UniProtKB/TrEMBL annotation:
<dbReference type="InterPro" id="IPR010099">
    <property type="entry name" value="SDR39U1"/>
</dbReference>
<dbReference type="Pfam" id="PF01370">
    <property type="entry name" value="Epimerase"/>
</dbReference>
<comment type="similarity">
    <text>Belongs to the NAD(P)-dependent epimerase/dehydratase family. SDR39U1 subfamily.</text>
</comment>
<feature type="domain" description="DUF1731">
    <location>
        <begin position="265"/>
        <end position="301"/>
    </location>
</feature>
<dbReference type="InterPro" id="IPR036291">
    <property type="entry name" value="NAD(P)-bd_dom_sf"/>
</dbReference>
<dbReference type="InterPro" id="IPR001509">
    <property type="entry name" value="Epimerase_deHydtase"/>
</dbReference>
<dbReference type="InterPro" id="IPR013549">
    <property type="entry name" value="DUF1731"/>
</dbReference>
<dbReference type="Pfam" id="PF08338">
    <property type="entry name" value="DUF1731"/>
</dbReference>
<feature type="domain" description="NAD-dependent epimerase/dehydratase">
    <location>
        <begin position="5"/>
        <end position="223"/>
    </location>
</feature>
<protein>
    <submittedName>
        <fullName>TIGR01777 family protein</fullName>
    </submittedName>
</protein>
Length: 309
């Protein structure tokens, strides 16, 4: 019988990528979603609200691992209502999944939480797992999130918090809007261009989740990002090169603010701040990265295979 993995809130870009990866490895995947319960291929989707126990809890009992992606997207305007929902969605899901694990006769071996590098704030200094935290709303969200995840002990279940960087993948995620801008010759430097992007290829992220599941020595907080962060200026330059686009006008900070609020309807800090983070724990434990060169990673994701030949 194949091992069952429960992906809570796993119907988004990263969750879908991981679900495909795990099913290809022979795991049984159950996704907890706010959408309707259904079956798609070999993946079962079960409805939940992310806050209260229900029939979905039965799937936790006897599962091999629980991986939690749940949380309102931070790609929005930081209104009081949105801020409250960003925090509540994260804390509620951690709480109710912990409740379900504690109530299980056969609890999962590991509980992996998808977290964020945003806890470091806006930094140019290199940050490993032990670096000081930053300031601001995003940092506070991460601090409360991590505290909620670790505060209750699970006697039979190992806990891993993956602080995920800027994950690059096909057909969605963080890369898609930037690639669209660059294809329209609008992919210039954003703001100062000095803010760092701690990027990683989604294939490596999938391997990190698998690594966290399968290796008992991996526990606690882990920076889930690539080993070679770059500045925004370098990232956009490389993106334009891969898409065969020449120079593009920079977008000064005031225009980023206007565009974010009026057009994108999102908080400008997402574009104007950055983090220079390294995956110290993964490197020390011998994790092997498949994608460490930004240009090669972008070509893999954005250039059709026949164009490589």
């Amino acid at each position: 019988m194949s091992k069952k993995i429960v992906l809570a809130g796993g119907s988004g870009f990263l969750g879908n990528a991981l679900a495909d990866f795990l099913t290809a490895k022979g795991f049984e995947v159950v996704i907890l979603t706010r959408g309707n319960s259904r079956v798609a291929g070999s993946i079962r989707y079960l409805q939940w609200d992310g806050a209260t126990r229900g029939a979905w809890s039965d799937e936790i009992d006897g599962s091999y691992a629980v991986i939690n992606f749940t949380g309102k997207s931070v790609n929005c305007l930081y209104t009081p209502k949105n801020k409250e929902e960003i925090i509540r969605s994260r804390l509620d899901s951690v709480r109710v999944l912990t409740d379900a694990i504690l109530a299980s006769a056969k609890p999962p071996a590991v509980f992996v939480q998808a977290g964020s590098l945003a806890i470091f704030g806006d930094t140019l200094q290199e940050c490993d797992e032990n670096a000081p935290h930053g300031t601001g709303f995003s940092v506070q969200v991460c601090q409360r999130w991590e505290q909620a995840f670790f505060e209750r002990e699970l006697p039979h279940t190992r806990k891993v918090m993956l602080r995920i960087g800027f994950a690059l993948g096909k057909n969605g995620g963080a890369l898609e809007p930037l690639a669209k801008l660059a294809s329209m010759r609008l992919g210039g430097t954003v703001g100062s261009g000095n803010q760092y992007i701690s990027w990683l290829h989604v294939d490596d992220l999938n391997e990190m989740f698998f690594y966290a599941m399968e290796n008992e020595q991996v526990n606690g907080i882990v920076n889930a990002t690539g080993p070679k962060p770059v500045t925004n200026r370098e990232f956009m330059q490389t993106l334009r090169k891969v898409l065969n686009k020449g120079w593009a006008p920079p977008t000064p900070a005031p225009f980023v603010w206007l565009g974010a609020y009026l057009v994108m309807r999102t908080d400008p800090s997402l574009a104007l701040t950055g983090r220079n983070c390294v995956p110290a724990k993964l490197l020390e434990s011998g994790f092997s990265f498949g994608h460490t060169d930004l240009e090669a990673a972008l070509r893999d994701l954005l250039v059709p295979e026949k164009a490589h030949a």
